[in-house]
Amino acid sequence: DTEVTQTPKHLVMGMTNKKSLKCEQHMGHRAMYWYKQKAKKPPELMFVYSYEKLSINESVPSRFSPECPNSSLLNLHLHALQPEDSALYLCASSQETGTGIGPQHFGDGTRLSIL
Amino acid sequence: QQQVKQSPQSLIVQKGGISIINCAYENTAFDYFPWYQQFPGKGPALLIAIRPDVSEKKEGRFTISFNKSAKQFSLHIMDSQPGDSATYFCAATYRSNTGKLIFGQGTTLQVKP
């Protein structure tokens, strides 16, 4: 079992729907990440939150909207997605210390399918 | 300069053999090199990591060898087992930054019984 929990595990949605992906960690990590992973490819970074503030947006389309309500939770709000957005969405977290960022720990992801 | 090149793309090894996956980087600012193991339907799991001031790190059957001058690092899996069959990603980052990981393209390992 991973220490980063993602829900739901699977999600099927139409292109006009609005849905949200959730991520939770209780390791006290202050950096949290969203990644997108296509089959047989490495994860691609989407967003980075540091101390609940968005620090990196990798030019992600506005139909993806991240939110960090507190230090343990990370959401990804989805609206008007396209079929090419079908992928595994991974959340990760890492510790921030005075010497930098610690290793990233991943959840098992949400498998998203856009009809 | 942000790329990490990983090879081979796929690897088949007999049970008990040694699996070797290689990665090369260009950015000398990288100071942390983790390896991730990913099983189908699961997220990547941190396997082992190394810093450039160390030439080798071993954890059980897994060893990272690091060649700073050549800007290369490799993962060796000794006594490979069918349960090691997975996709392996090398990565690089510099921790003083945001911790953004630069991943290699991945290697699919199959260990035959």
Task: Give a brief description.
The complex is a heterodimer of chains A (115) and B (113). With 115 residues, chain A is mainly beta. Chain A has strands spanning 4-7, 10-13, 18-25, 31-37, 44-50, 53-57, 64-70, 73-79, 87-94, 96-97, 100-101, 105-106, 110-114.
Q: Your description of this structure?
A:
The complex is a heterodimer of chains A (115) and B (113). With 115 residues, chain A is mainly β. Chain A has no helices and 13 strands. Chain A has strands at residues 4-7, 10-13, 18-25, 31-37, 44-50, 53-57, 64-70, 73-79, 87-94, 96-97, 100-101, 105-106, 110-114. In chain A, the strands form three sheets. In chain A, strands 2, 4, 5, 6, 9, 12 and 13 form a seven-stranded mixed sheet that branches. In chain A, strands 1-3-8-7 form a four-stranded antiparallel sheet, with no helix packed on it. In chain A, a hairpin with a 2-residue loop joins strand 5 and strand 6 (53-57). Chain A is globular. The model of chain A has no long low-confidence stretch (mean pLDDT 92). Chain B has no helices and eleven strands. Chain B is 0% helix and 52% strand. Chain B is globular, with a radius of gyration of 13 Å. Chain B has 113 residues and is an all-beta fold. Chain B has strands at 4-7, 10-14, 19-25, 33-38, 45-50, 56-59, 62-67, 72-77, 86-92, 102-103, 107-112. The chains are: A mainly beta (115), B mainly beta (113). The A-B interface holds A 2, 4, 6, 31, 40-43, 45, 48, 50, 55-56, 90, 92, 94, 99-109 and B 32, 34, 36, 41-46, 49, 87, 89, 93-101, 103-106, 108.
Write the layout of secondary structure elements.
The complex is a heterodimer of chains A (115) and B (113).
Chain A lengths: L3 E4 L2 E4 L4 E8 L5 E7 L6 E7 L2 E5 L6 E7 L2 E7 L7 E8 L1 E2 L2 E2 L3 E2 L3 E5 L1
Parallel strand pairs in A: 2-13
Antiparallel strand pairs in A: 1-3, 3-8, 4-5, 4-9, 5-6, 7-8, 9-12, 9-13, 10-11
Chain B lengths: L3 E4 L2 E5 L4 E7 L7 E6 L6 E6 L5 E4 L2 E6 L4 E6 L8 E7 L9 E2 L3 E6 L1
Parallel strand pairs in B: 2-11
Antiparallel strand pairs in B: 1-3, 3-8, 4-5, 4-9, 6-7, 7-8, 9-10, 9-11
